[in-house]
Amino acid sequence: MTEIGIILGSTRPNRNGEQVAKWVYDIASRRSDAGFEVVDLRDYPLPHLDEPLPPSMGQYQGEHTKKWAEKIASFDGFVFVTPEYNHSTSGVLKNAIDYLYTEWNNKAAGFVSYGGVGGARAVEHLRLVAGELQMADVRQQVALSLMTEFENFSVLKPGEYNVRALDTLLDQVVAWSQALAPLRTAAA
Ligand SMILES: Cc1cc2nc3c(=O)[nH]c(=O)nc-3n(C[C@H](O)[C@H](O)[C@H](O)COP(=O)(O)O)c2cc1C
Description:
With 188 residues, this protein is α/β, with parallel strands linked by helices. The chain contains six helices and seven strands; from the N terminus they run E-H-E-H-E-H-E-H-E-E-E-H-H. The protein has helices at residues 17-28, 63-73, 91-98, 120-132, 160-179, 181-187; strands at residues 3-8, 35-40, 77-83, 107-115, 135-145, 150-151, 155-156. The strands form two sheets. Strands 2-1-3-4-5 form a five-stranded parallel β-sheet, sandwiched between helices. The longest helix is centred in the C-terminal third of the chain and has 20 residues, at 160-179. It binds flavin mononucleotide (FMN). Flavin mononucleotide binds at residues 10, 12, 15-17, 83-87, 115-117.
């Protein structure tokens, strides 16, 4: 079974991200072509990157790093749920991404973002990061405007078109996760 991690990239109290990740999971879990799991960064409290060697060397020393690496290694692809902070993704998500290398390689990535302009700028940054990590970022994106897809900027009420966009995004993430499986096998 193809396994897709839905990474919840916000940890602050009162975060909108929790509703967004739950919405993604609820729609994804209707599917039978892959398994889905929400990975909440609150459950993986990583300090500012404290590994002595570059992650690409794969010699992790911290127990927190090993636990995070084991979780990410268990997936074939990802949906990143990202807020937009100061025209980029959150620091906590970037830090969690920076911790690892091989565990991200040759896996698909889709992005569900939210913010004043749907988190579009956060995703543009994440696409650059994905390239360096040898991730295949799919075209379809779900960008949830705080103005139109949330009530009072805090209660998620996504339009039907966003449900369709999410279905397409999941189609693409699952397809590319499966297509890249031979590369992951060769690397292992
Ligand atoms: C530190 C910070 C910076 C923000 N910067 C932006 C921004 O540059 N553009 C934007 O559209 N929204 C910005 N926002 C609004 C967030 O996108 C919005 O509060 C969103 O709900 C944050 O995600 P979270 O609730 O899951 O943490 C910012 C919010 C925070 C906390």
